[in-house]
Write a structure and sequence with these properties.
The chain has 254 residues and is an alpha/beta fold. It contains eight helices and eleven strands.
């Protein structure tokens, strides 16, 4: 049976674990050949995609580093030829009060979370423009609307992603390239579950607090996000661009 993305190439950053991993596996399920760009080993993701009969490769890449992204672009061009769907998911979220944040801390978060999306889009939108079809999906965060203390640099970077998404949608739409953002809520991943505290309280209490504020009163899972990725990557979303889709159980409904 033909799948919706048969013959398309997807590049997913930050896909060695967590949300990026789930997005990569879902796109592979839908027929994409997936290229994983991550600083960490993506063997687990590759195995998951192989287990469902999908096709994927992994490239070690620091998406915040211009030479590393340039090397990734050359490797993609030589191996799979192009990028049809770009999912910018790589990100870091160190917890620091504002008075603890140094300028080096600030720059690192902005570089990994925001600069990387500029670099990856610059590297891969050209093939989309040439083929007059492309999907760019950027991962933001609902903390832009529901501010959590201790994450000033993270929240600033995620607000920048929403602005970048709108600006790119304006410029790239004439080439039939859509650009959208997904803003998850607090999601149960290896990284978030490993924290001892968040928002000034124990991790368990913070997850419970957030869940009780949502319309759907349970913790968010990575599986809750992949449907949004699949939709925004599809032909069904061909007239949807410049949007930020909040996927957080209704937390930002008011």
């Amino acid at each position: 049976m033909t799948k919706k993305h048969d013959g398309r190439i997807a590049i997913v950053s930050g896909a060695s674990s967590g949300i990026g991993q789930a997005a990569a596996v879902r796109l592979a399920e839908d027929g994409c050949e997936v290229v994983i760009a991550d600083r960490a080993s993506a063997e687990e993701t590759l195995r998951s995609i192989k287990d469902i009969g999908g096709k994927a490769t992994a490239v070690l890449c620091d998406v915040s580093d211009p030479p590393s992204v340039a090397a990734l672009s050359k490797q993609v061009e030589s191996s799979v030829g192009r990028c049809d769907i770009l999912v910018n998911c790589a990100g870091i979220y160190p917890a620091q009060s504002f008075d603890e944040i140094t300028f080096d801390d600030w720059r690192r978060v902005l570089s990994v979370n925001l600069d990387s999306m500029f670099l990856m889009t610059k590297a891969f939108f050209g093939a989309m423009r040439q083929r007059r079809w492309g999907r760019i999906i950027n991962f933001a965060s609902d903390t832009v609307s529901l501010v959590v203390p201790g994450f000033t640099h993270y929240i600033a970077s995620k607000a920048g992603i929403i602005g970048l998404t709108r600006a790119l949608a304006t410029e790239l739409g004439e080439h039939n390239i859509t650009v959208n953002a997904i803003a998850p809520g607090l999601t149960s991943t290896q990284g978030t579950l490993a924290r001892k505290e968040m928002g000034g309280m124990s991790n368990d209490k913070f997850f419970e607090l957030i869940a009780n504020m949502q319309s759907i009163k349970r913790p968010e899972l990575v599986s809750d996000l992949v449907g949004a990725v699949a939709f925004l990557a599809s032909d069904d979303a061909g007239f949807v661009t410049g949007q930020t889709l909040y996927v957080n159980g209704g937390l930002t409904r008011t």
